[in-house]
Amino acid sequence: MTNLIDKSTVFTHTESVNKPSSRISQAWKVAPNVFSSFRFAWAGVIYTFKTQRNFRIHTAIALLALSSGLIVHVTMVKMAILALTCALVMILELLNTAIEAVVDLTVGTQYHQGAKIAKDCAAGAVLVSAIASVFQGKRILKIYEKVVW
């Protein structure tokens, strides 16, 4: 199926839950240096970008919103609010992906109501933040219903 970014640090979706890679079995260890920590964090962002359609959509919309803000010369404060709002949506999408991965690892292919609730709530958090960011972006960029909607 889909491979993660670096097989030496993570496993593929097709690997069995019962056969974790040697790297996963050592996941509790602290990264040897700060650069490794950043590399692992960036691998998570890259993995999410490559595998999650919604993260790519959020990234494209964030770039569009921030570019629009620069084009229409919004104030630095409004630009900061816009950037933080976009970042919040992307952060929640990263957390949603992490929660889904842990839930899938835990329950495997079995259905579990608790797993469904966890995944639905994480997705709901992304949805709420995305809706809020649309309204905030619309307000900051002064996009009127007649033009966009």
What would you say this structure looks like, in words?
The longest helix is centred in the middle third of the chain and has 32 residues. This protein is mainly alpha-helical and 149 residues long. It has two domains: 51 residues, no CATH class; 96 residues, Orthogonal Bundle (Helix Hairpins). Helix 3 packs antiparallel against helix 4 and helix 4 runs antiparallel to helix 5. It starts with 21 loop residues before the first helix and ends with a helix. It has six helices and no strands. It holds the Pfam family DAGK_prokar.
Quick overview:
InterPro entries: DAGK (IPR000829), DAGK_sf (IPR036945), UDPK (IPR033717). By secondary structure, this protein is mainly α.
Low-confidence parts lasting 5 or more residues at pLDDT below 50? 1-20, 145-149
* Percent in helix: over 70%
The tally of beta strands, per DSSP, is 0
Order of helices and strands: HHHHHH
Distance between the termini: 38 Å
Largest sheet: none
Number of helices: 6
Secondary-structure-based class equals: mainly alpha
Mean pLDDT, all residues: 83
Proper CATH architecture of the largest domain: Orthogonal Bundle
Q: Which descriptor suits the 3D outline?
A: globular
Strand content: under 5%
The structural domain count equals 2
- The Cα radius of gyration reads 19 Å
Q: Output the CATH topology of the largest domain.
A: Helix Hairpins
